[in-house]
Design brief:
Strand order of the largest sheet: 1-2-3-6-5
Structural class: alpha+beta
Distance between the termini: 177 Å
Shape: rod-shaped
Strand content: 15-25%
Mean pLDDT: 80
Number of helices: 8
Length: 281
């Protein structure tokens, strides 16, 4: 009886071990099949584990590059003075430098819009750091250049575009400045609201002519000057009058020749006698 019982237990144990081994083998085959299928999919798509890592690294790099950058520290020179609309003073390397804006001519201080132009420039640059692009030096030793504002705009262009200055075409062929003036004229900004605005260079010329006339209004004249006829070349480059209309110097005049009295030539036109063709007494 005991023998039969032991034999039954042995058979049962053997059967159980075979069953467990079979289950383990089946699970192993399933795992192997899953691995093979996964590898086959990766090969078909051309993606490997190394590729996956590379993609992740590249994505992280792009995100890092796309992250917002802090604005660079503003570099340049501090504006410590505004003399008028087109002339400012910079503090550069511990020294004050006077800068005349290139291609820009604002109205004079005693001219219409002169004070407004100065205030506009002051509002944009005084006490701020700006960048200077040097063009040259003028006959007064001032640095001539373009001022770049902290936000990247050009002060030169802003003055003209908003009607606080003229494009100084005699000294500049800059197309941006020329277009800025065309824009200001079209929309009647600033000084272009006036029906007949006077260019600063003409205003200065009129001021000089007026002062010269005031100085010569009571100038002494030779005897008989009020009745003596003389001739003058109506040109700003001429400073003399001529007794003889056939004088070779007068013949070179490319403008109108005016006939007047000697007294008028001296007092009204501020001329002096030409010694080249002076008649013999």
């Amino acid at each position: 009886m005991k023998r039969f019982l032991y034999l039954s237990l042995a058979l049962l144990t053997l059967f159980s071990c075979k069953s467990d081994r079979k289950d383990a083998q089946e699970q192993f085959r399933e795992r192997q099949q899953a691995i093979l299928e996964r590898n086959g999919q990766e090969e078909e798509s051309g993606i490997t584990a190394a590729d996956t890592v590379a993609v992740v690294e590249e994505t992280d790099k792009e995100r890092s590059e796309e992250a917002p950058r802090k604005p660079a520290t503003t570099a340049g020179d501090k504006v410590v003075g505004v003399k008028d609309g087109d002339t400012i003073v910079l503090l550069r390397n511990g020294e004050e430098v006077t800068v005349r804006l290139y291609g820009v001519d604002t109205p004079e201080k005693n001219q219409a819009y002169g004070q407004r132009a100065k205030q506009y420039t002051s509002d944009l640059v005084f006490g701020k750091n700006v960048r200077l692009l040097i063009n040259n030096k003028d006959r007064y030793g001032r640095t001539v250049g373009t001022i770049i504002l902290p936000d990247g705009r050009s002060l030169n262009e802003e003055l003209i575009r908003n009607g606080y200055a003229w494009h100084y075409k005699a000294y500049s062929k800059d197309l941006n400045l020329a277009n800025a003036e065309v824009d200001a004229r079209r929309f009647k900004r600033g000084l272009w609201q006036d029906p007949n605005p006077i260019a600063p260079w003409d205003f200065r010329k009129n001021q000089r002519t007026g002062n010269a006339s005031a100085n010569t209004a009571n100038a002494p004249v030779p005897a008989g000057a009020t009745k003596r006829t003389v001739y003058i070349c109506n040109s700003t480059s001429s400073s003399v009058y001529h007794y003889d209309s056939t004088c070779h110097v007068l013949k070179r005049c490319k403008d109108e020749v005016i006939k007047t009295t000697e007294a008028a030539a001296i007092r009204e036109h501020g001329r002096r006698a030409d010694k080249t063709c002076t008649p013999k007494v």
